[in-house]
Specification:
With 591 residues, the protein is an alpha/beta fold. It has 3 domains: 316 residues, P-loop containing nucleotide triphosphate hydrolases (Rossmann fold, 3-Layer(aba) Sandwich), CATH 3.40.50.300; 89 residues; 69 residues, no CATH class. Helix content is 55%, strand content 11%. The strands form 2 sheets. Strands 1, 2, 3, 4, 5, 6, 7, 8 and 9 form a 9-stranded mixed sheet that branches. A two-stranded antiparallel ribbon has the order 10-11. Helix 10 packs across helix 11. The relative contact order is 0.08. The C terminus is likely disordered.
Length: 591
């Protein structure tokens, strides 16, 4: 999410006044879902024009890009110092001549998402300002730039060149006096108006001191003490205005860093600068990176948006904001912020009981307790000197806001109770209808079950009856089958016997034919006797038997007219010699 550009938050107009710009763009970015609940940190820089503020900020930009990409460790100085280290290396515009190029206040279009030393993810913005003390700007503009930058930044870098001299400290004293004036009218106790101030001496003329934090802090305190001896109580003004105050001595960047074509490369940078810029950024952007706070409360991006929106009202007039206007605005912002905090706590408490669906009596009891607690918190906040009447006014505003909030809650609760009552009635009606439907369904189910049982019983009886009938039929069939088989067997035996007799008769007839004695019709009585014998033994072919009898009878009746054959051979015996013909007695022996 590293920023790709910067835009102006405040610009100079034709009358050399400071006017707000792109405020809505900044506020909308702060309230987007990806960062709105994330703590915010703003680092700002102020100082004289053409003293390398933008160059320093471009180095910080490259360092923050590397920190965002590798959150587990602080990047090596070689990974961010040189311009070829990252794309879009110079985010802040640098002047190619002796005139400053930054006008007004500029800020990165997106935050750097950085993991702080305690593991918290912080949205970090860089804030660049136009140079102070140039010949084209009013002194009041310089004061406004310093105060506004310090007001909205969690860390302000005061950039000076070569020597932390009396002029630089006097300028700081003037700014701090304005801040101290705000503070004296603003807070009681040990609270401070602004957060952290770092006085960075660039291209420091070291002499007997060493570059870095230790000698930078020592030199700062020595110079402040010198100012105090001259009856300029700079140290008192500054320490009253800022939470912390530190100094750092930075060696020279390169031999000729002011040339128009100069770029930061490994060949052009002094090793001492390379070493100490790493030490400086390790603390400012690393271990000492802190979120924006007011009265000890850490602000998220969304909360800071509300604070910043109030600050921008300072730019709506036709002139540069004065310290008194800033004082008035900050007092109002602080009162309103305190009231909003107390109101938010009241809402949090009252909505807890709203989740339990309370009665109006229980809601009113909880409302009274929560309101008393919120008003107590507001009244216990640090009171501005000579602002007791205003404190009471905002306390009354808080009471009115809470009562208005409570009226809305009561209306919502009444609507909820009515809806709940209507729902209960509707539920009871539905339950009664459901019970009736269930009873009817039970009755229908019982009827259906009874019908099914009757049908099952009838089916069972019918099945048993059919099974009995089938069993009887199987038994009858079995008997008939047995009887059929028995008769079939008997008929087969009789058929065989008949066949045997017929075969025997045929043989005997053939034998008779072969005999030369007697006539062939003399054998007809024997044939009839044989047929009677066969019929008496069980031959069932009645029709054929009747036809044979009829044919035999006709032959007998017509035998008288049949001429008797004449046998020429005397060797053939007649039937008379054989005696009567019987089927059981016919044999070839008698022939």
């Amino acid at each position: 999410m590293a920023p790709t550009a910067v835009y102006a938050l405040a610009e100079k107009d034709g009358d050399d006044d400071l006017k707000a710009a792109n405020v809505e763009t900044f506020l909308q970015r702060l309230c987007q879902d990806d960062i709105k609940n994330m703590p915010i940190s703003l680092t700002g820089i102020v100082g004289r024009f053409r003293e390398g503020k933008s160059t320093l900020y471009n180095i910080m930009h490259r360092c923050l890009v590397q920190m965002e990409q590798n959150p587990d460790s602080f990047p090596d100085v070689n990974d961010y110092l040189f311009e070829a280290a990252v794309p879009n290396a110079n985010l802040f515009k640098m002047s190619p001549n002796s005139h400053g190029c930054t006008q007004g206040i500029w800020i990165t279009n997106d935050p750097y998402i950085i993991r702080s030393s305690d593991g918290t993810m912080i949205a970090v913005f860089l804030l660049d300002t136009q140079g102070l003390c140039d010949n084209e700007s009013k002194d009041s503009l310089d004061s406004a730039l310093f105060l506004l930058t310090s007001m909205i930044c969690s860390c302000t870098i005061y950039n000076i060149m070569r020597v932390m001299g009396s002029d630089s400290l006097k300028t700081l004293a003037v700014f701090s006096k304005l801040a101290s004036k705000i503070r004296n009218s603003f807070y009681t106790g040990k609270e401070r108006v602004f957060q952290d101030l770092v006085i960075l001496t660039r291209d420091a003329m070291l002499g007997d001191v060493q570059p870095g934090w230790k000698d930078g802090d020592m030199q700062l305190q020595q110079n402040l003490q010198k100012q105090k001896q001259k009856n300029v109580d700079t140290i008192k003004q500054v320490t009253k205005a800022f939470r912390t105050l530190r100094g750092f001595l930075m060696p020279k960047l390169a031999a000729d860093p002011d040339e128009q074509s100069f770029t930061i490369t490994p060949q052009s940078v002094f090793p001492e600068f390379q070493k100490h810029i790493a030490l400086f950024l390790q603390e400012v952007l690393g271990s000492k990176l802190a979120p924006f706070q007011r009265r000890g409360d850490t602000y998220t991006c969304q909360e800071f948006a509300g604070f910043f929106k109030s600050i921008t009202e300072l730019f709506e007039s036709d002139s540069i904001p004065r310290a008194e206007n800033m004082l008035e605005t900050m007092i109002r912002v602080e009162f309103e912020a305190g009231m909003e905090t107390a109101l938010a706590e009241y809402r949090a408490e009252i909505y807890k009981i709203m989740e339990t669906s309370p009665t109006n009596d229980a809601l009113y009891t909880h409302h009274s307790a929560s309101k008393s607690q919120a008003k107590l918190k507001q009244s216990q906040a640090p009171i501005y000197i000579n602002e007791r009447a205003r404190a009471n006014l905002y306390l009354q505003k808080l009471d009115d806001a809470i009562e208005k909030e409570f009226e809305l809650l009561v209306a919502q609760n009444n609507a909820r109770l009515k809806a709940q009552d209507d729902y209960q009635k509707s539920l009871q009606t539905k339950e009664a209808e459901l019970s009736a439907m269930e009873a009817e369904a039970v009755a229908d189910r019982q009827r259906h079950e009874n019908t099914i049982q009757d049908m099952e019983h009838k089916f069972q009886s019918l099945s048993e009856q059919r099974e009995t009938e089938r069993q009887a039929m199987r038994t009858e069939i079995a008997k008939e089958q047995a009887e059929f088989e028995r008769r079939q067997s008997q008929m087969d035996r009789e058929r065989l016997e008949a066949q045997h007799c017929v075969d025997k008769l045929r043989q005997e007839i053939e034998m008779k034919r072969s005999c030369s004695r007697g006539s062939w019709w003399d054998h007809i009585p024997g044939v009839l006797n044989l047929i009677d014998s066969l019929a008496s033994k069980g031959i069932k072919y009645h029709k054929n038997y009747t036809k044979i009898q009829a044919r035999s009878a006709s032959q007998l009746s017509s035998s008288a007219s049949v001429p008797t054959p004449v046998y020429t051979s005397t060797s053939v015996p007649s039937l008379k010699d054989c005696g009567p013909v019987e089927s059981s007695k016919i044999s070839s022996d008698k022939c």
